[in-house]
Structures are given as structure tokens and as C-alpha cells.
Design brief:
The chain is α+β, with helices and mostly antiparallel strands. It has one domain. The protein is about 25% helix and about 20% strand. The protein contains three helices and five strands; from the N terminus they run E-H-E-E-E-E-H-H. It has a five-stranded mixed beta sheet. The radius of gyration is 19 Å and the shape is globular. Mean pLDDT is about 80; it is low at about 105-110.
């Protein structure tokens, strides 16, 4: 993944934005919606009206970085939010970027081969 998630606050824009906006336009939107310093390393996530494109904007040491993802034949899935900019988790962003809806993914612990082997042996006995 190209986006450094560690110890970052992630803000997700609830309303679609005009994707002709570049770094300056998106940073102006952030300043008008959030009372934060845009150089703090937070990740700001925007989507278009068709929900097939996402832009992530963040400050990286000495300049802004824009991460742009366009889905080919489907749409990003996320729920409508009440606030203009809502905080989401790192895991939520990873799931959104993968094309799934964060709130519908059931987080299950990964079972090891040992668990499968134990059940297999119990079944054989």
C-alpha cells in the first residue's frame, strides 16, 4: 500500500467532490470544512459522485501526495455519513479501497493450520 497509515488520523469526506480539483482545491476544501492544520500528516479521503474514484490527500515530510484510485467496473461502497468530514479507521480505509463496505465486513480471527489439524484429528477419532 502506498499510503502510510501508521499513527495517522483519517478523514473521509461525506459529500462527493469535483474530481477536477487538484491539491490546492482539495486543501482549500479541507480548510473550509475542518479546523485542522493540513500539514499535520492526516489523510483526507474524497470520492466523486459516481463513487468509482477516490483521492487521498496527505502531507509527506516536504510536500503533498495525492493517491488516486479508479475502479474499472464497480463502485466503492460506503455508508452515508452525517458530518462533512468523518474520522475512519485505518482498517476502514483499507476495506473501502479494496471495494468493500467497511461496516459489513465481519472481522474474524484467522485460523491456523493447527486448528484445522486438531478438528480433523477429533473427527477421525
Amino acid at each position: 500500500m502506498l499510503i502510510p497509515f501508521e499513527n495517522k488520523t483519517i478523514y473521509f469526506a461525506s459529500k462527493p467532490v469535483d474530481f477536477r480539483l487538484g491539491i490546492d482545491g482539495l486543501s482549500t476544501l479541507i480548510k473550509s470544512e475542518k479546523n485542522t492544520h493540513i500539514h499535520d500528516g492526516s489523510i483526507y479521503v474524497f470520492h466523486n459522485a459516481n463513487k468509482d474514484k477516490i483521492k487521498c490527500l496527505f502531507w509527506d515530510d516536504n510536500g503533498f501526495v495525492v493517491y488516486y484510485k479508479r475502479l474499472d467496473k464497480c463502485k466503492f461502497k460506503f455508508q452515508a455519513m452525517m458530518n462533512a468530514m468523518e474520522t475512519i479507521t485505518q482498517n476502514d480505509l483499507k476495506i473501502i479501497l479494496s471495494g468493500f463496505e467497511p461496516r459489513t465486513i465481519e472481522q474474524k480471527p484467522i485460523k491456523s493450520n493447527r486448528d484445522y489439524a486438531k478438528r480433523f484429528l477429533e473427527h477421525k477419532a
